[in-house]
Design goal:
Blueprint (H helix, E strand, L loop, with lengths): L1 E5 L3 H10 L5 E6 L11 E4 L5 H10 L2 E4 L6 H8 L3 E2 L3 H8 L1 H10 L7 E4 L2 H11 L3 E5 L9 E4 L5 H7 L5 E5 L5 E9 L5 E3 L3 E6 L2 E7 L6 H14 L4 E10 L2 E8 L9 H4 L4 H10 L11 E8 L5 H5 L4 E5 L9 E9 L2 H20 L1
Helix pairs in contact: 1-10, 3-4
């Protein structure tokens, strides 16, 4: 059985690493000559909309998936006419447009922060009365890890923020006084079987995820599962999905969803009985989903910009290093480490040490 993946970055790499013990083969399509998944499997080198390469991918793969949501939706549609593609193209199209995504949440009865479509500077200025301050202007399409965004704190910020987008369709979102940022990883198989991982509490800095901690037994687990289930069923979803949420005094509101395996689920590689990557493969192949229960206290720390020294991480007990084989670059995710332990005090100490090391590497 061969799985095709659109995108050859670290998520594709981790999908392949999860699939090889299951006897699966992989082929990726990516335009980058240094795509890190290309070291593990066959790579078709070229643009995502190259129909010759897409036809070759469809011919060689029994099923195709993708590792990031900025793959053109028409590419997924082209492939789905030739082979099975999961998650379904309609999920990709919805997640790619922040306005469509927010409208979809509202249709499903999933609350969101206040938001408005922005098509001109005049309209932008007019809607701020209903959105309130502070707020954030985002491009409707593309943009991730803080890219394509501008924080708005005063009316004087509006014109520069609008000009910086250079006419790109945009959405403005109001800030909410959240207690914490959390996410839930969910999986749904071809057969309709559904599984949920425990909520993860997430810490971001400069728009990039830094730490995700598993929150087994969280009081808001049931509410998060309810929201995620609505998404899975409405989209007839197949695969792993991540729903990012804010906790407010009144419960959870949705920020966005990612139709793919997700950074906040990396803790599951060692921290859960079945990783998000293995369950994604099980889901798209129609196999039974694996157990999502955590193994003790578990968390993930990202390394941004620079790779850690392997010996520094390997000297730490109950800690696991994942290097992506990517060169260091400012703002780039190059590696992560996971912690899994049954001792809460040891857990807290390890997370603190890893976060401190990651911060120093990022600053350098």
């Amino acid at each position: 059985m061969k799985v095709g993946i659109l995108g050859g970055g670290q998520l594709a790499r981790m999908i392949a690493l999860a699939g090889y013990p299951l006897g699966l083969e992989f082929i990726v399509l990516d335009p980058g000559e240094d795509a890190c998944a290309g070291l593990l499997c066959e790579q078709l080198l070229g643009a995502y909309d190259d129909q010759t390469l897409l036809a070759e991918l469809a011919a060689k793969a029994d099923v195709v998936t993708y590792e990031f949501e900025n793959v053109p939706a028409e590419v997924a549609a082209f492939l789905s006419a030739r082979t099975a593609v999961y998650p379904p193209p309609q999920a990709l199209a919805t997640a790619q447009d922040r306005l469509l995504e927010k409208d979809f949440f509202q249709q499903l009865g999933i609350p969101t922060p206040p938001y408005a479509d922005v098509t001109s500077l005049q309209q932008f200025t007019g809607v701020m009365a209903q959105i309130g301050w502070p707020a954030i202007l985002k491009t409707r399409r593309m943009g991730y890890d803080g890219k394509g965004q501008a924080v708005l704190r005063t009316p004087e910020d509006l014109a520069p923020a609008w000009q910086a987008l250079e006419g790109a369709p945009a959405i403005v979102e109001g800030f909410v006084a959240f207690k914490r940022e959390v996410s839930i990883i969910a999986a749904r198989s071809v057969s309709g079987e559904v599984a949920f991982y425990p909520l993860a509490q997430n810490l971001h800095n400069k728009g990039i995820l830094r730490v995700s901690e598993c929150c087994h037994g969280d009081a808001l687990q049931e509410q998060a599962e309810g929201y995620a289930r609505r998404l899975l069923e409405a989209l007839d979803y197949v695969g792993v999905l991540a729903l990012e949420l804010f906790e407010l005094d009144g419960g959870l509101v949705a920020n966005e969803f990612a139709p793919r395996v997700h950074n906040s689920g990396h803790w599951t590689i060692e921290g859960a009985q079945t990783s998000q990557f293995e369950n994604h493969l099980r889901a798209i192949l129609g196999w039974p989903l694996g157990d999502t229960r955590p193994e003790g206290f578990a968390a993930m720390v990202n390394f941004i910009g620079n790779n850690p020294k392997s010996e520094d991480i390997l000297a730490m007990p109950q800690t696991h290093l994942h290097l992506y084989h990517k060169a260091g670059r400012k703002g780039r995710k190059v590696a992560h480490a996971t912690v899994r332990t049954g001792d809460k005090a040891v857990y807290a100490s390890l997370i603190s040490q890893l976060a401190d090391l990651a911060s120093r590497l990022d600053d350098s």
